[in-house]
Specification:
The complex is a heterodimer. Chain A is mainly alpha-helical. In chain A, about 65% of the residues lie in helices and about 5% in strands. Helix content of chain B is about 65%, strand content about 0%. The longest helix of chain B has about 35 residues. Chain B has a single domain, classed as Cytochrome C Oxidase, Chain A (Up-down Bundle). Classes of the chains: A mainly alpha, B mainly alpha.
Chain lengths: ~250, ~550
């Protein structure tokens, strides 16, 4: 089986004809994995579709580890800057940290991004649905792609809505007279939300690429890899946003 | 030629990296010689330029440090060597992502060009040292070179960080995912363990530097003040002040800077274990301990950065804590050194050139390492900080140990690329003169530092006469530095001459080694742990390469 899939117990029960022509059914359902059946053991273990998928996943996770450090460093810089004081001849120890009221639209944006994580995950799972993938591999049609595409498009729309919401939040702050270089807190706000928005923008580009890849790529496993890698990136950006949001809202 | 340059073959990329590092090391060495000339003969006019002014001296210091640390000591052990042998040593057919790997090389090359461009812009290269502490690095008014030169430095470093993170992510995936059947973690050569740890450190540390450099660029151009404190006056004129703190830069920079030391030296340590096993014909006695020590160095290395900042105004209690973590990290380092000494003790030593260079590495690592715990004491560091004692310490433990392990690697892996060995006689001349000249250049710096000679001062003789009695020491250092640089010409000659005229090898395994890069078989099944040399009392020279099927001695 040259593609990775998730086996669903219900289907094994329903579809088992009980005689030949099917691979042995003693496989355990392994979330997102499986596929190491012995009937294609002539494939080298390093070159199977599952290994390829894991390789790409690991690359995404390594880059995301660097990204985690990136945001962690920004957050620690935020705290260092927040606690910084200087000594003024007239007032003694002064802090120049002016708490900033985050625009309420951020709550809506957060909800939108969380929702997009769900649509993304549904899209990803469609691509690992055993029966559909089997059908795609045999070239009988593209049921998995057909089912995943709407969810992927929904994710793109929600991601776009999030970015638009962030844009509105920046405009609202600008109307209050808070620009990038107004005060330490405001430039941290723009920096944190801005770098995150850049990441999401790249994520949107990746989503569009994955959407095109689903229809254009000839090999089933490459379609899976495109969607899978994008989805892990997207989930990580959602997770990072929750940390940043908590930081912005509750640590003023 | 174009095919050679735009290749995705890891070995060809390794050569590209090596040539890039050669360009950087030649430039960096010439800069250091200019510094030495200036310190010894301050009024000597150097033909195209004239007399070196103090700001020129500082630019030399900055560019020498940046070129050597990033483009030599990081690029060779952490980019060139893994490309040369890492896939082969784990039995992989190539890197996990070969185009990503090639892209990392190209970003590194652009980064070097951007850095070197700083010499050619008006006002020249930046002058605030390779650490580029703000506020001086944040203000264009702080001196010549702090305008465009400083911007170019920041852009170059940002690009370098990006390249390092991408290539290390690729190495991580390759090591974790592309091993040959039978290549379990317990069978990985120690070089591969080192690259696993140093790649993890690279992903973490270089990201921190990436953020720091980006924030400094924002401070310089977008009106922020992450690092700019209040009340700055330059030459009597109030400069653009802010409300930030330079301490933030120090923390971010050294959170990169100290793991960086381990990124440069860990591959050398792994190579030392492999070469010592090969040329003493003994197994590594405590393989598991070595792996644990390597991992511990990686983990602890992330928590010692504050020992660069004892006198920076950091909380003294934090200083004590960082002093303790630094002592803690010397425990796994010492464990590795003791293991190497055990291997030398009653081993059957084969003093080939790579072996000699690893012994040199060991010598510098111990000599430079012993002053580490001294500098890690906040009380002692208060006196020694920013003196030549520190210069001596890191030039021995990081620069010379690093460079000697690089030489060992080149002599050792040369037959992989050319099918010939480098000339042994020239190699031994290169080794012995380098060893003596390196100690001659860097060991006296300890005494200069104890006498209080500060770093970064362009000259010692002037209206104040406190350091005039150190001038003979300085002169000795300069002549040793000339000798050290000159003998590298022997090495360069040897590299190019041996490619055509060196002793041709009949087999694929000239050193009778056990690791997979010497395997004559294309797709080996791994049957053995990496260092299966027969223990000393056994007759003959039995060894069991990793590609041979498992069999008892």
């Amino acid at each position: 089986m040259p593609a990775t899939f998730t086996r669903h117990t219900v289907e094994t029960e329903r579809k088992d004809p009980g005689f030949g022509g099917k691979p042995p059914l003693d496989r355990r359902p392994t979330g997102g994995g499986g596929g190491d059946e012995n009937w294609d053991s002539h494939h080298s273990r390093r070159h199977g579709p599952r290994e390829q998928l894991i390789r790409y996943r690991m690359a995404v996770f390594s880059i995301l580890a660097a990204d985690l450090v990136f945001f962690a460093v920004l957050v620690s810089a935020f705290f260092v800057r927040q606690s910084a004081t200087h000594i003024s001849p007239s007032d003694g120890v002064v802090s120049d940290w002016h708490p900033l009221a985050p625009p309420p639209i951020l709550w809506i944006n957060t909800a939108i991004l969380l929702l997009s994580a769900f649509t993304m995950e549904i899209a990803r799972r469609q691509l690992f649905h055993e029966i559909d993938i089997m059908e795609e591999w045999l070239g009988l049609g593209r049921p998995a792609v057909r089912r995943a595409a709407p969810w992927l498009i929904a994710t793109i729309l929600l991601g776009g809505a999030f970015l638009a919401g962030q844009w509105i939040a920046w405009r609202q702050l600008a109307q209050q007279g808070l620009f990038f270089s107004s005060n330490p807190n405001s430039y941290f706000f723009y920096l944190v939300t801005g770098t995150h928005a850049v990441h999401l923008f790249l994520g949107l580009a990746a989503l569009l690429f994955a959407l095109a890849a689903m229809f254009r790529f000839k090999r089933v496993e490459m379609r899976q890899i495109a969607v899978d890698s994008t989805s892990w990136y997207w989930h990580a950006m959602g997770l990072f946003w929750i940390f940043l949001f908590v930081l912005i809202v509750f640590f003023q | 030629m174009t095919r050679r340059l735009f290749t995705t073959n890891p070995r060809a990329l390794a050569l590209n990296y090596l040539f890039l590092a050669l360009l950087a090391v030649i430039t960096g060495t010439l800069l250091s010689l200019l510094m030495r000339i200036h310190r010894t003969w301050p009024n000597l006019a150097i033909p195209p330029h004239g007399v070196i002014r103090p700001e020129d001296y500082l630019a030399l210091v900055t560019m020498h440090g940046t070129l050597m640390i990033f483009f030599v000591l990081t690029v060779v052990p952490q980019s060139a060597f893994p490309n040369l042998v890492l896939p082969a040593q784990i039995g992989a057919e190539g890197m996990a992502f070969s185009r990503l790997n090639a892209a990392a090389f190209w970003i590194t090359a652009v980064s070097l060009l951007v850095l070197l461009a700083a010499f050619f812009v008006p006002e020249g290269a930046p002058i605030s040292g390779w650490t580029n502490y703000p506020p001086l690095s944040a203000l264009s008014a702080a001196g010549p070179g702090q305008t465009t030169g400083m911007d170019l430095w920041l852009v170059a470093i940002t690009l370098f960080c990006l390249a390092s993170v991408l290539s290390s992510a690729n190495f991580l995936v390759t090591i974790l995912n592309n091993r040959a059947p039978g290549m379990t973690f317990a069978r990985l050569p120690l070089t591969v363990w080192s690259w696993l740890v140093s790649s993890g450190l690279t992903v973490i540390a270089f990201t921190a530097l990436f953020v720091a450099a980006s924030l400094l660029l924002a401070d310089r151009h977008f009106g922020t003040s992450f690092f700019l404190p209040s009340g700055i006056v330059v030459n009597g004129i109030p400069a653009r002040s802010g409300t930030g703190t330079p301490m933030l830069w120090l923390h971010l920079f050294w959170f990169f800077g100290h793991p960086e030391v381990y990124i440069t030296i860990l591959p050398g340590m792994g190579l030392a274990s492999s070469i010592l096993a090969n040329f003493t014909r003994r197994p590594v006695p405590a393989y598991r301990l070595m792996v644990i020590a390597t991992l511990l160095i990686g983990v602890l290395g992330l928590g010692v950065w504050g020992h660069h900042m004892f006198v920076s105004g950091m909380n003294p209690y934090a200083g004590t804590a960082f002093g303790l973590t630094t002592i803690a990290i010397s425990v796994p380092s010492s464990a590795e050194v003791l293991t190497w000494l055990v291997m030398l003790f009653r081993g059957r030593l084969h003093p080939t050139t790579p072996m000699l260079f690893i012994l040199g590495f060991l010598s510098f690592f111990i000599a430079g390492g012993l002053t580490g715990p001294i500098l890690a004491q906040p009380a002692l560091d208060a006196y020694l900080h920013n003196t030549f004692f520190v210069v001596a310490h890191f030039h021995l433990v990081m620069a010379m140990a690093g460079v000697f392990s690089i030489f060992a690697g080149i002599y050792y892996w040369y037959p992989l690329l050319t099918g010939r060995r480098m000339n042994e006689l020239l190699g031994k001349i290169h080794f012995w003169i380098s060893l003596i000249a390196a100690y001659g250049a860097f060991f006296p710096m300890h005494f200069a530092g104890l006498a209080g000679e500060p770093r970064h001062y362009s000259q010692l003789n002037g209206p104040v006469e406190s350091f005039t009695r150190l001038i003979p020491v300085e002169r000795g250092i300069t002549w040793s530095a000339f000798l050290l640089a000159a003998v590298q010409l022997v090495f360069l000659f040897n590299v190019f001459w041996s490619a055509r005229r060196g002793v041709a090898e009949s087999g694929t395994n000239p050193w009778r080694a056990t690791t997979l890069e010497w395997s004559p078989i294309a797709h080996p099944i791994i049957g053995n742990s990496p260092y299966e040399y027969a223990p000393a009392p056994a007759p003959g020279d039995n060894f069991l390469p990793q590609w041979e099927p498992e069999k008892p001695f």
